[in-house]
Design brief:
Elements lengths: L4 H32 L5 H24 L19
Amino acid sequence: IKLDSEKAKNGLAQLVLTLVKVIHELLELQAIRRIDAESLLDEEVENIGMTLMKQAEEIDRLRKEFNLEEEDLNIDLGPLGKLL
């Protein structure tokens, strides 16, 4: 079997970054729900906002490092449609 190590590396990076992005988006939705419910202090809202922003920047940095486009993180699930 002939394997292209660069292709395998990028495929794994694509999968991992896709999962990280999905988790990040779920965290954003949870944060919004808690903010709307007014169950967080102002300081907590600020901390969550900064953390989510830093996470998004790091996801974007890693995506670029592996030469992946934003669309590459939106895996096609066949009949279910796109993941994100």
